[in-house]
Amino acid sequence: MSRAVKGTIVVEGQELTVSNPDKLLWPEMGITKAVFLQRLAGLAPWLLKHCQDRLLTTIRFPDGVNGKSFYQKNSPTPAPDFVETERREGIDYVKLTSLPVLLWLGNLACLEYHASFDRVSDPLRPTEWVLDLDPSLEEEPRIMEAALLAGDLLRSLGIASTPKTSGATGVQIIVPLVKDLTFDELRRIGEFVGSYLSDKHPRLFTVERLKKHRGDLIYVDYLQHYQGKTIIAPYSPRARAAASVSTPLHWDEVRRGAAIADYHLLNIEERLHREGDLLDRIPAQSLRPILTFIGKR
Protein backbone atom coordinates (compact mmCIF):
# COMPACT_ATOMS: atom_id res chain seq x y z
CA MET A 1 0.00 0.00 0.00
CA SER A 2 1.41 3.40 -0.99
CA ARG A 3 1.88 6.01 1.69
CA ALA A 4 -0.44 9.02 1.55
CA VAL A 5 1.24 12.30 0.62
CA LYS A 6 0.12 15.63 2.05
CA GLY A 7 1.23 19.21 1.76
CA THR A 8 -0.12 22.69 2.46
CA ILE A 9 -0.68 25.80 0.38
CA VAL A 10 -1.74 29.29 1.37
CA VAL A 11 -4.52 30.84 -0.71
CA GLU A 12 -5.91 34.29 0.03
CA GLY A 13 -4.46 34.06 3.52
CA GLN A 14 -5.99 30.65 4.24
CA GLU A 15 -3.90 27.53 4.75
CA LEU A 16 -5.19 24.51 2.84
CA THR A 17 -4.13 20.89 3.00
CA VAL A 18 -3.58 19.15 -0.32
CA SER A 19 -3.56 15.36 -0.12
CA ASN A 20 -2.24 12.98 -2.76
CA PRO A 21 -1.51 15.65 -5.39
CA ASP A 22 -0.28 13.04 -7.88
CA LYS A 23 -3.47 10.97 -7.80
CA LEU A 24 -4.96 10.66 -11.28
CA LEU A 25 -8.52 11.98 -11.30
CA TRP A 26 -9.02 11.90 -15.09
CA PRO A 27 -6.61 9.13 -16.20
CA GLU A 28 -7.44 9.39 -19.91
CA MET A 29 -6.49 13.08 -19.89
CA GLY A 30 -3.55 12.70 -17.51
CA ILE A 31 -5.13 15.13 -15.03
CA THR A 32 -3.87 14.67 -11.49
CA LYS A 33 -5.34 16.30 -8.42
CA ALA A 34 -2.58 18.94 -8.53
CA VAL A 35 -3.48 19.79 -12.13
CA PHE A 36 -7.18 19.78 -11.28
CA LEU A 37 -6.67 22.27 -8.46
CA GLN A 38 -4.67 24.53 -10.76
CA ARG A 39 -7.40 24.42 -13.40
CA LEU A 40 -10.10 24.89 -10.79
CA ALA A 41 -8.33 28.02 -9.55
CA GLY A 42 -8.32 29.34 -13.11
CA LEU A 43 -12.07 28.73 -13.41
CA ALA A 44 -12.84 30.20 -10.00
CA PRO A 45 -13.95 33.74 -11.04
CA TRP A 46 -16.65 32.31 -13.29
CA LEU A 47 -17.61 29.23 -11.33
CA LEU A 48 -17.97 31.20 -8.10
CA LYS A 49 -20.13 33.80 -9.84
CA HIS A 50 -22.61 31.20 -11.04
CA CYS A 51 -22.75 29.33 -7.72
CA GLN A 52 -23.11 32.33 -5.43
CA ASP A 53 -26.50 32.68 -3.77
CA ARG A 54 -27.33 29.08 -4.75
CA LEU A 55 -27.60 25.86 -2.79
CA LEU A 56 -24.64 23.72 -3.82
CA THR A 57 -24.55 19.98 -4.40
CA THR A 58 -21.25 18.38 -5.37
CA ILE A 59 -20.41 14.93 -6.64
CA ARG A 60 -17.27 13.43 -5.15
CA PHE A 61 -14.99 10.88 -6.83
CA PRO A 62 -12.35 9.97 -4.21
CA ASP A 63 -10.54 7.63 -6.64
CA GLY A 64 -11.09 9.60 -9.82
CA VAL A 65 -13.74 9.46 -12.53
CA ASN A 66 -13.41 5.71 -13.00
CA GLY A 67 -14.06 5.00 -9.33
CA LYS A 68 -17.11 5.14 -7.10
CA SER A 69 -18.87 8.45 -6.48
CA PHE A 70 -21.43 9.98 -4.14
CA TYR A 71 -23.50 13.14 -3.91
CA GLN A 72 -22.56 15.62 -1.21
CA LYS A 73 -25.24 18.07 -0.06
CA ASN A 74 -24.23 18.48 3.58
CA SER A 75 -20.94 20.23 4.17
CA PRO A 76 -18.10 17.75 4.58
CA THR A 77 -16.77 17.57 8.12
CA PRO A 78 -14.55 18.67 9.64
CA ALA A 79 -14.62 21.95 7.72
CA PRO A 80 -12.14 24.82 8.05
CA ASP A 81 -13.26 27.98 9.83
CA PHE A 82 -13.50 29.90 6.55
CA VAL A 83 -16.25 27.61 5.22
CA GLU A 84 -19.76 29.03 5.70
CA THR A 85 -22.95 27.06 5.32
CA GLU A 86 -26.62 27.71 4.56
CA ARG A 87 -29.09 25.52 6.44
CA ARG A 88 -32.18 24.43 4.48
CA GLU A 89 -34.55 21.64 5.45
CA GLY A 90 -32.01 20.05 7.77
CA ILE A 91 -29.13 20.23 5.28
CA ASP A 92 -26.06 22.44 5.78
CA TYR A 93 -25.08 23.45 2.25
CA VAL A 94 -21.60 24.84 1.59
CA LYS A 95 -21.66 28.47 0.49
CA LEU A 96 -19.27 28.68 -2.44
CA THR A 97 -18.01 32.17 -1.69
CA SER A 98 -14.26 32.15 -2.23
CA LEU A 99 -11.30 30.48 -3.90
CA PRO A 100 -10.17 28.78 -0.66
CA VAL A 101 -13.61 27.16 -0.29
CA LEU A 102 -13.52 25.97 -3.91
CA LEU A 103 -10.03 24.49 -3.56
CA TRP A 104 -10.95 22.84 -0.26
CA LEU A 105 -13.80 21.09 -2.06
CA GLY A 106 -11.52 20.27 -4.99
CA ASN A 107 -9.02 18.61 -2.67
CA LEU A 108 -11.86 16.42 -1.41
CA ALA A 109 -12.33 15.30 -5.04
CA CYS A 110 -15.56 17.23 -5.54
CA LEU A 111 -15.36 17.08 -9.33
CA GLU A 112 -18.85 18.30 -10.24
CA TYR A 113 -20.69 21.40 -8.97
CA HIS A 114 -24.48 21.51 -9.24
CA ALA A 115 -26.30 24.73 -8.29
CA SER A 116 -29.95 25.18 -7.34
CA PHE A 117 -32.24 26.98 -9.77
CA ASP A 118 -33.64 29.02 -6.90
CA ARG A 119 -31.56 31.66 -5.19
CA VAL A 120 -31.01 31.68 -1.45
CA SER A 121 -31.90 35.38 -1.24
CA ASP A 122 -35.18 35.06 -3.21
CA PRO A 123 -36.17 31.43 -3.76
CA LEU A 124 -39.58 32.13 -5.30
CA ARG A 125 -38.55 34.35 -8.23
CA PRO A 126 -36.04 32.77 -10.64
CA THR A 127 -33.52 34.94 -12.45
CA GLU A 128 -33.27 32.64 -15.45
CA TRP A 129 -35.33 30.07 -17.28
CA VAL A 130 -33.65 26.85 -18.42
CA LEU A 131 -34.81 24.39 -21.04
CA ASP A 132 -32.89 21.13 -20.73
CA LEU A 133 -32.43 19.00 -23.85
CA ASP A 134 -31.66 15.53 -22.51
CA PRO A 135 -30.70 12.77 -24.99
CA SER A 136 -31.95 9.25 -24.46
CA LEU A 137 -28.81 7.91 -26.16
CA GLU A 138 -25.38 8.03 -24.54
CA GLU A 139 -23.96 9.36 -27.82
CA GLU A 140 -26.39 11.68 -29.60
CA PRO A 141 -25.09 13.14 -32.89
CA ARG A 142 -28.28 15.22 -33.30
CA ILE A 143 -27.99 17.19 -30.05
CA MET A 144 -26.72 20.39 -31.68
CA GLU A 145 -29.39 20.15 -34.38
CA ALA A 146 -31.98 19.84 -31.61
CA ALA A 147 -30.52 22.81 -29.72
CA LEU A 148 -30.59 24.93 -32.85
CA LEU A 149 -34.25 24.10 -33.53
CA ALA A 150 -35.17 24.97 -29.94
CA GLY A 151 -33.17 28.20 -30.08
CA ASP A 152 -34.80 29.18 -33.38
CA LEU A 153 -38.23 28.62 -31.88
CA LEU A 154 -37.42 30.82 -28.89
CA ARG A 155 -36.05 33.48 -31.21
CA SER A 156 -39.29 33.42 -33.22
CA LEU A 157 -41.10 34.14 -29.94
CA GLY A 158 -38.83 37.10 -29.26
CA ILE A 159 -36.82 35.26 -26.59
CA ALA A 160 -33.04 35.70 -26.55
CA SER A 161 -31.09 32.75 -25.15
CA THR A 162 -27.66 31.19 -24.73
CA PRO A 163 -26.95 27.50 -25.33
CA LYS A 164 -24.76 25.69 -22.79
CA THR A 165 -23.36 22.20 -22.99
CA SER A 166 -24.07 20.06 -19.97
CA GLY A 167 -20.55 18.73 -20.31
CA ALA A 168 -22.08 15.25 -20.49
CA THR A 169 -24.53 14.47 -23.32
CA GLY A 170 -27.08 17.28 -23.35
CA VAL A 171 -27.51 20.97 -23.99
CA GLN A 172 -29.29 23.50 -21.81
CA ILE A 173 -30.78 26.69 -23.20
CA ILE A 174 -30.60 29.56 -20.74
CA VAL A 175 -32.78 32.67 -20.76
CA PRO A 176 -31.90 35.48 -18.29
CA LEU A 177 -35.00 36.93 -16.64
CA VAL A 178 -36.26 39.92 -14.75
CA LYS A 179 -37.90 38.59 -11.60
CA ASP A 180 -41.55 38.79 -12.62
CA LEU A 181 -42.57 35.15 -13.13
CA THR A 182 -42.79 32.16 -10.81
CA PHE A 183 -41.43 28.68 -11.45
CA ASP A 184 -44.97 27.45 -12.11
CA GLU A 185 -45.57 30.15 -14.71
CA LEU A 186 -42.31 29.29 -16.43
CA ARG A 187 -43.33 25.63 -16.49
CA ARG A 188 -46.36 26.62 -18.55
CA ILE A 189 -44.06 28.25 -21.09
CA GLY A 190 -41.79 25.20 -21.03
CA GLU A 191 -44.71 22.86 -21.62
CA PHE A 192 -45.80 24.97 -24.60
CA VAL A 193 -42.30 24.98 -26.12
CA GLY A 194 -41.69 21.27 -25.46
CA SER A 195 -45.05 20.23 -26.86
CA TYR A 196 -44.57 22.38 -29.96
CA LEU A 197 -41.11 20.91 -30.64
CA SER A 198 -42.28 17.32 -30.16
CA ASP A 199 -45.33 17.89 -32.39
CA LYS A 200 -43.31 19.67 -35.09
CA HIS A 201 -40.34 17.25 -34.98
CA PRO A 202 -41.73 13.93 -33.69
CA ARG A 203 -38.66 11.98 -34.80
CA LEU A 204 -36.34 14.16 -32.74
CA PHE A 205 -38.10 15.46 -29.61
CA THR A 206 -40.34 14.09 -26.88
CA VAL A 207 -41.89 15.33 -23.65
CA GLU A 208 -42.29 11.77 -22.35
CA ARG A 209 -41.04 11.74 -18.75
CA LEU A 210 -40.26 8.01 -18.54
CA LYS A 211 -36.94 7.24 -20.20
CA LYS A 212 -38.00 3.69 -21.06
CA HIS A 213 -40.74 5.14 -23.30
CA ARG A 214 -38.56 7.68 -25.13
CA GLY A 215 -36.77 5.40 -27.54
CA ASP A 216 -33.98 7.41 -29.19
CA LEU A 217 -35.74 10.77 -28.84
CA ILE A 218 -34.35 13.85 -27.11
CA TYR A 219 -36.33 14.77 -24.01
CA VAL A 220 -37.36 18.41 -23.71
CA ASP A 221 -37.15 18.61 -19.93
CA TYR A 222 -39.04 21.71 -18.85
CA LEU A 223 -39.95 20.17 -15.48
CA GLN A 224 -36.38 20.17 -14.13
CA HIS A 225 -36.40 23.96 -13.85
CA TYR A 226 -38.03 24.30 -10.45
CA GLN A 227 -37.38 25.37 -6.89
CA GLY A 228 -35.27 22.79 -5.05
CA LYS A 229 -33.88 21.22 -8.21
CA THR A 230 -30.36 21.70 -9.56
CA ILE A 231 -28.43 22.19 -12.78
CA ILE A 232 -24.79 21.56 -13.52
CA ALA A 233 -23.21 24.96 -12.93
CA PRO A 234 -21.71 26.84 -15.87
CA TYR A 235 -17.98 26.06 -16.06
CA SER A 236 -18.22 23.05 -13.77
CA PRO A 237 -16.07 20.08 -14.78
CA ARG A 238 -17.82 16.77 -15.42
CA ALA A 239 -16.72 13.30 -14.42
CA ARG A 240 -16.35 12.18 -18.02
CA ALA A 241 -13.29 10.65 -19.66
CA ALA A 242 -12.62 13.84 -21.64
CA ALA A 243 -12.69 16.06 -18.50
CA SER A 244 -15.37 18.08 -20.28
CA VAL A 245 -16.68 21.31 -18.80
CA SER A 246 -20.22 22.68 -18.96
CA THR A 247 -19.67 25.51 -21.44
CA PRO A 248 -21.85 28.31 -22.86
CA LEU A 249 -21.63 28.50 -26.65
CA HIS A 250 -22.23 30.94 -29.47
CA TRP A 251 -25.21 29.98 -31.60
CA ASP A 252 -22.84 29.90 -34.57
CA GLU A 253 -20.86 27.17 -32.79
CA VAL A 254 -24.07 25.19 -32.33
CA ARG A 255 -24.86 25.70 -36.02
CA ARG A 256 -21.46 24.29 -36.95
CA GLY A 257 -22.10 21.17 -34.87
CA ALA A 258 -19.85 21.79 -31.86
CA ALA A 259 -18.85 18.67 -29.93
CA ILE A 260 -19.49 18.69 -26.18
CA ALA A 261 -16.14 17.03 -25.42
CA ASP A 262 -14.25 19.82 -27.24
CA TYR A 263 -14.56 22.04 -24.16
CA HIS A 264 -12.57 20.60 -21.28
CA LEU A 265 -10.39 21.38 -18.29
CA LEU A 266 -7.24 21.78 -20.33
CA ASN A 267 -8.58 24.44 -22.71
CA ILE A 268 -11.58 26.14 -21.08
CA GLU A 269 -9.61 28.85 -19.28
CA GLU A 270 -8.03 30.07 -22.52
CA ARG A 271 -11.50 30.19 -24.09
CA LEU A 272 -12.88 32.22 -21.19
CA HIS A 273 -10.08 34.76 -21.42
CA ARG A 274 -10.68 35.02 -25.17
CA GLU A 275 -14.49 35.00 -25.29
CA GLY A 276 -15.50 36.09 -21.81
CA ASP A 277 -18.60 34.69 -20.15
CA LEU A 278 -21.19 34.30 -22.91
CA LEU A 279 -23.93 34.22 -20.28
CA ASP A 280 -23.28 37.92 -19.65
CA ARG A 281 -24.16 38.98 -23.18
CA ILE A 282 -27.94 38.88 -22.98
CA PRO A 283 -29.77 41.30 -20.66
CA ALA A 284 -32.57 40.10 -18.39
CA GLN A 285 -35.92 39.96 -20.17
CA SER A 286 -39.56 39.39 -19.31
CA LEU A 287 -41.44 36.38 -20.61
CA ARG A 288 -44.81 37.64 -19.39
CA PRO A 289 -45.94 38.52 -22.95
CA ILE A 290 -45.29 34.88 -23.93
CA LEU A 291 -47.29 33.68 -20.95
CA THR A 292 -50.15 35.99 -21.96
CA PHE A 293 -49.97 34.71 -25.54
CA ILE A 294 -50.16 31.09 -24.36
CA GLY A 295 -53.11 31.90 -22.12
CA LYS A 296 -55.09 33.21 -25.10
CA ARG A 297 -54.64 30.05 -27.14
* Distance linking N and C termini: 68 Å
Strand order of the largest sheet: 11-12-10-14-13
Question: Might you state the CATH topology name of the largest domain?
Answer: DNA primase, PRIM domain
Number of β-strand runs: 15
User: What is the CA-based Rg, rounded?
Assistant: 20 Å
> Helical residue percent?
25-40%
| Broad structural category | alpha+beta
Residue share in β-strands: 15-25%
Largest sheet: 5 strands, mixed
What is the CATH architecture annotation of the largest domain? Alpha-Beta Complex
Structural domains: how many: 2
Protein name: Non-homologous end-joining DNA ligase
Keywords: Ligase
EC number: 6.5.1.1
GO molecular function: DNA ligase (ATP) activity
Task: Provide a short characterization of the protein structure.
Its EC number is 6.5.1.1. This protein is an alpha+beta fold and 297 residues long.
Provide tags for this entry.
7 helices; 4-stranded antiparallel beta sheet; alpha+beta; 24% strand; 5-stranded mixed beta sheet; DNA primase, PRIM domain; 2 domains; 15 strands; 297 residues
